[in-house]
Design goal:
Elements lengths: L2 H6 L2 E3 L2 E3 L1 H7 L20 E6 L6 E8 L3 E6 L8 E9 L9 E17 L2 E14 L1 H10 L1
Antiparallel strand pairs: 1-2, 3-4, 3-6, 4-5, 5-8, 6-7, 7-8
Length: 146
Protein backbone atom coordinates (compact mmCIF):
# COMPACT_ATOMS: atom_id res chain seq x y z
CA UNK A 1 0.00 0.00 0.00
CA UNK A 2 1.41 3.36 -0.96
CA UNK A 3 1.36 6.40 1.30
CA UNK A 4 -0.85 8.36 -1.10
CA UNK A 5 -3.50 5.58 -0.92
CA UNK A 6 -3.51 5.82 2.86
CA UNK A 7 -3.55 9.62 2.81
CA UNK A 8 -6.49 9.72 0.42
CA UNK A 9 -8.71 8.15 3.07
CA UNK A 10 -7.51 10.53 5.79
CA UNK A 11 -8.44 14.11 6.50
CA UNK A 12 -5.73 16.44 5.24
CA UNK A 13 -5.47 19.98 6.56
CA UNK A 14 -2.69 22.48 5.94
CA UNK A 15 -0.68 19.76 4.24
CA UNK A 16 -0.71 17.55 7.35
CA UNK A 17 -2.40 14.16 7.31
CA UNK A 18 -4.60 13.30 10.27
CA UNK A 19 -6.43 10.15 11.17
CA UNK A 20 -6.34 7.04 13.31
CA UNK A 21 -4.71 4.84 10.68
CA UNK A 22 -1.77 7.13 9.96
CA UNK A 23 0.30 5.91 12.92
CA UNK A 24 -0.46 2.28 12.09
CA UNK A 25 0.80 2.89 8.56
CA UNK A 26 3.92 4.70 9.77
CA UNK A 27 4.60 1.84 12.21
CA UNK A 28 4.46 -0.77 9.46
CA UNK A 29 0.85 -1.64 10.15
CA UNK A 30 1.58 -2.84 13.67
CA UNK A 31 -0.35 -1.36 16.51
CA UNK A 32 0.89 -1.22 20.10
CA UNK A 33 -2.28 0.36 21.38
CA UNK A 34 -3.73 -1.81 24.15
CA UNK A 35 -6.39 0.73 25.05
CA UNK A 36 -9.70 -1.13 25.01
CA UNK A 37 -11.94 1.79 25.90
CA UNK A 38 -14.90 2.29 23.61
CA UNK A 39 -15.53 5.97 24.26
CA UNK A 40 -13.33 9.03 23.81
CA UNK A 41 -11.93 10.49 27.02
CA UNK A 42 -11.62 14.13 27.97
CA UNK A 43 -8.83 15.33 30.27
CA UNK A 44 -11.08 16.88 32.91
CA UNK A 45 -10.08 17.59 36.50
CA UNK A 46 -13.29 17.41 38.51
CA UNK A 47 -13.69 16.78 42.23
CA UNK A 48 -15.05 13.32 42.94
CA UNK A 49 -15.98 11.56 46.18
CA UNK A 50 -15.77 7.75 46.27
CA UNK A 51 -17.58 5.66 48.85
CA UNK A 52 -17.17 1.92 49.38
CA UNK A 53 -19.95 -0.08 51.00
CA UNK A 54 -17.71 -0.62 54.07
CA UNK A 55 -16.66 3.04 54.48
CA UNK A 56 -18.37 5.67 56.60
CA UNK A 57 -16.58 8.62 54.99
CA UNK A 58 -15.94 9.15 51.28
CA UNK A 59 -12.48 9.50 49.75
CA UNK A 60 -11.90 12.76 47.90
CA UNK A 61 -10.07 12.70 44.59
CA UNK A 62 -9.80 14.54 41.27
CA UNK A 63 -10.60 12.94 37.95
CA UNK A 64 -7.77 12.70 35.42
CA UNK A 65 -10.07 11.91 32.53
CA UNK A 66 -13.75 11.29 31.97
CA UNK A 67 -15.81 9.58 29.27
CA UNK A 68 -19.52 8.97 28.84
CA UNK A 69 -19.04 5.54 30.47
CA UNK A 70 -16.46 6.10 33.18
CA UNK A 71 -13.57 7.98 34.73
CA UNK A 72 -10.00 7.62 35.94
CA UNK A 73 -8.74 9.16 39.19
CA UNK A 74 -5.98 8.73 41.78
CA UNK A 75 -6.55 7.62 45.37
CA UNK A 76 -4.44 6.81 48.42
CA UNK A 77 -6.15 3.50 49.17
CA UNK A 78 -5.98 0.30 47.17
CA UNK A 79 -9.16 -0.77 45.41
CA UNK A 80 -9.91 -4.17 43.90
CA UNK A 81 -10.98 -4.77 40.32
CA UNK A 82 -14.67 -5.66 40.37
CA UNK A 83 -15.36 -3.61 43.51
CA UNK A 84 -18.64 -1.68 43.41
CA UNK A 85 -18.56 1.88 44.69
CA UNK A 86 -20.80 4.92 44.97
CA UNK A 87 -19.39 8.22 43.81
CA UNK A 88 -20.38 11.83 43.49
CA UNK A 89 -18.85 13.92 40.73
CA UNK A 90 -18.90 17.71 41.03
CA UNK A 91 -19.29 19.15 37.52
CA UNK A 92 -18.72 22.91 37.25
CA UNK A 93 -21.50 24.73 35.42
CA UNK A 94 -19.22 27.52 34.17
CA UNK A 95 -22.05 29.95 34.90
CA UNK A 96 -20.57 33.45 34.81
CA UNK A 97 -23.12 34.76 37.30
CA UNK A 98 -22.60 31.84 39.72
CA UNK A 99 -18.97 30.66 39.27
CA UNK A 100 -19.05 28.31 42.29
CA UNK A 101 -22.13 26.37 41.18
CA UNK A 102 -21.82 22.71 40.30
CA UNK A 103 -24.03 19.95 39.04
CA UNK A 104 -23.76 16.79 41.10
CA UNK A 105 -23.69 13.44 39.37
CA UNK A 106 -24.29 10.52 41.74
CA UNK A 107 -23.06 7.24 40.29
CA UNK A 108 -22.89 3.56 40.94
CA UNK A 109 -19.59 2.41 39.45
CA UNK A 110 -17.41 -0.67 39.16
CA UNK A 111 -13.62 -0.55 39.46
CA UNK A 112 -12.24 -1.99 36.22
CA UNK A 113 -8.56 -1.03 36.53
CA UNK A 114 -6.08 -0.46 39.37
CA UNK A 115 -2.63 1.00 38.64
CA UNK A 116 -0.05 1.16 41.45
CA UNK A 117 1.55 4.60 40.99
CA UNK A 118 3.66 4.95 44.15
CA UNK A 119 3.48 3.59 47.69
CA UNK A 120 -0.07 4.27 48.89
CA UNK A 121 -1.02 5.94 45.58
CA UNK A 122 -3.18 4.18 43.00
CA UNK A 123 -4.85 5.12 39.77
CA UNK A 124 -8.29 3.57 39.34
CA UNK A 125 -10.45 3.30 36.26
CA UNK A 126 -14.16 2.98 36.93
CA UNK A 127 -17.07 2.06 34.69
CA UNK A 128 -20.27 3.97 35.49
CA UNK A 129 -23.14 1.50 35.83
CA UNK A 130 -25.87 4.04 36.60
CA UNK A 131 -26.13 7.70 37.52
CA UNK A 132 -28.53 10.48 38.39
CA UNK A 133 -28.29 14.27 38.45
CA UNK A 134 -28.76 15.85 41.85
CA UNK A 135 -29.56 19.45 42.78
CA UNK A 136 -27.53 21.40 45.29
CA UNK A 137 -30.29 21.37 47.96
CA UNK A 138 -30.75 17.62 47.76
CA UNK A 139 -27.00 16.99 47.85
CA UNK A 140 -26.68 19.07 51.04
CA UNK A 141 -29.30 16.88 52.71
CA UNK A 142 -27.61 13.76 51.38
CA UNK A 143 -24.21 14.77 52.77
CA UNK A 144 -25.71 15.53 56.17
CA UNK A 145 -27.29 12.07 56.32
CA UNK A 146 -24.03 10.20 55.66
Amino acid sequence: MELREVLSSLAVGNGIACGPDLMRYMDGGHTHDTDRRKRPRLALTWTIYLLRSTDTRPLESKTKNVSSEGFYCCVRERFVVGECIRCTVFIPTRDVEHPDECIFLECQATVVRVDPIAPDHYGIGCHIESYKMVTRARRTVSLAAT
